[in-house]
Amino acid sequence: MSVADTSAWGALTEHADSIATRSIRELFAADSGRGAAMSVRAGDLYIDYSKHRINGETLRLLHLLARETHLFEQRDAMLRGDRINVSENRSVLHTALRRRRDEKLFLDGHDVVQDVHAVLDAMGDFTDRVRDGSWTGADGGAITTVVNIGIGGSDLGPVMVHRALREYCDGPDVRFVSNVDPSDLLSTLADLDPATTLFVVVSKTFSTFETMANAHAARRWLVDELGEDAVGKHFVAVSTNADLVAEFGIEPSNVFGFWDWVGGRYSVGSAVGLSVMAAIGRERFAEFLEGFRIVDEHFATAPIQSNAPVILGLLSVWYASVLDADARAVLPYANDLARLPAYLQQLAMESNGKSVRGDGKPVGVPTGEVIWGEAGTNGQHAFHQLLHQGTRLVPADFIGFARAGQDVASSDGGTAMHEVLTANMFAQSRVLAFGKTRVEVIADGVDPNLAPHKVMPGDRPSTTILAPELSPSTLGQIIALYEHQVFVQGAVWGIDSFDQWGVELGKASAVELAPALASGGGPSDAMDSSTRELVAAFWKERA
Ligand SMILES: O=P(O)(O)OC[C@H]1O[C@](O)(CO)[C@@H](O)[C@@H]1O
User: Fold this and answer.
1) By Cβ atoms counted within 10 A, which residue in 64, 68, 319, 497 is the most buried?
2) Bridge-partner residues for 47, per DSSP?
3) How far apart are the CA of 153 and the centre of ligand 1, in A?
4) Which of 3.20.20.70, 3.30.530.20, 3.40.640.10, 3.40.50.10490 would CATH assign to domain 3-69+302-493?
5) Rounded Cα gap, residues 539 and 543, in angstroms
6) CA-CA distance, 229 to 224, in Å (whole number)?
7) CB-based contact 514:524 (threshold 8 Å)
8) Residue nearest to atom 4 of ligand 1 (CA)
9) Three-state DSSP class for residue 411
10) What residues form the catalytic site here (predicted)?
11) What tens digit of pLDDT does each residue of 471-499 get?
């Protein structure tokens, strides 16, 4: 059944008209306990969802929507390993990656938790050796730099986590190459010595064009300097495709596997996190996985009223589908989380940027969200103007931390910079929600002619996620929170959130066009007129 055919859907669309008559300011005025009532804890995360365009009736109807779309049955099906990725006939078990060693989860009669821990042990042994210098390069020296080559889910997770846990990195320098733009690889290798460099080629399929192009170029760079025999000491792989890895020349003992039941964008807790483990060590990586597990447990067991991913997932459906919001801003008030918006773009948009349901029928309501953002306070000096006074509805997620890893005094010498940062975060969500009326502006002595420019409409929704500190555990908790939020959206919409057919045609088209841009190529009459002219312009410029 389409979400649009549920009784909750009809009631929510009617309810949207009535909630539109009451601003967030009015909703707060009517209930002095709203801030406490509309907040929830998941593990170490305190999540405030009070500054939304909702009241008790909205939540009641969203809960009804969850029940009518069998959200909890779908959650349980995912967690026990049913093949809920219907278009690829696969289980979806990234949650198995964070199960404890003594747990069991049988898939087709086989305990996958044992497999997960066997790979984690192998990753731990390998990264211990890289970190303590006993894994040596071809000339007997220790490895000082690890270069992760991958793209999409084989890059965004490791990049984001490595940067987020910067203060925990005490292993080799780790760098990332993803783009097929040669400048990415060349600038990364420019100051490196092949003798002390280790490449981790990460590709679930081991056939992604960009990754293979970069891996082969890196291989040539290494072999030119150290010879063919050096490859085994300087290349390891993370993949589910053992045959193609062997063809590349990487020894089976240097391959860290994962499984078809881990989607690329859900894979940072698998062997895809190998370079992160090299940077932070196996103990910290275990804490990272434990963070995920804490929120997995919460998602699996908390009642609907206090289940954070369920609440956040239903709220995002409310905005995206009922209130027609196209976008959501993700605003981490932590510079080390600067890559979180990019990571969440893939997680949310590759998962739910779809218009048909798992059964191939149209979803029938607007789906997906354009996720974007920037670390605070930088965003305040760029796009917050539109958030505050523009005409578009853009719900925002603020993410902050009570403690900074390192802190310094602010300009007044008394306040710490982290306190200023957090004051900015709280101020932004407050101003977005409550705004400033004309009466208040004029009471401040503003010229009435200028007042319209200074009125802040308010009524701009946001969620605030506050954690004690940015640590491996809290980072795992935040990622799992978002993973499950995305699951909830997809389940309500009836979407298969775990395939990505939409990116395939573009890849095939690039392969088809490549000869026209390679030497001896050029425009052809078979091309559409725009592509033909672009190819012609490309060749003209090259000449
Ligand atoms: O790990 P692979 O197989 O190289 O794929 C990389 C990325 O390409 C995609 O398949 C499509 O962009 C992503 O889902 C995936 O994360």
Assistant:
1) 497
2) 40, 465
3) 6
4) 3.40.50.10490
5) 6
6) 11
7) no
8) 203
9) coil
10) 350 (proton donor), 381, 507
11) 999 999 999 999 999 999 999 999 999 99
